[in-house]
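From the pipeline queue, job 12 of 40. The input is one protein chain; the requested action is below.

Action: predict structure.
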Amino acid sequence: MNTHRSTRRQALAGIALSCAWPLAHAAESALPAPDSLADALAAALARSQPLVVMASLRGCPFCRIVREHYLMPELATGLPIVQIDLRDRRMVRDFDGTPRTHEALLAAWGIAVAPTLLFFGRGAREVAERLTGGASDFYGAYLEQRLHQARAAVRA
């Protein structure tokens, strides 16, 4: 009888985990992953906005904080933001149309730390200093400074 309870608990725990994993994965992917950076940038520039690219890493607690507390509110106000994952082998077309994995794209950009935010404007040029890391009491101020700089460059 004790074995039956143990087996039942294990089965219920397995069901709970199988239901929770997609939800946790969805939270990791709350920012859109682009098919084409050129298309994402064109859409951003059409709205006189920079394209913000978050270099992320699945399971990274700092990435989650940056995503949930800083970027999701900006996305809700209309700021174009996309997410590229450091260890993702999905394909994305680079600004020049070259297909690359997320991982290869970030390696080509020299990104090794997650989270890192990049701010792109006309000509796929970075228009503000990269914001690297997420453990800072002043993160919100640093982000606002870079967004101000990026928006000014795009609207100039």
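Job complete. Residues 31-155 form a domain with the Glutaredoxin fold (CATH 3.40.30.10).
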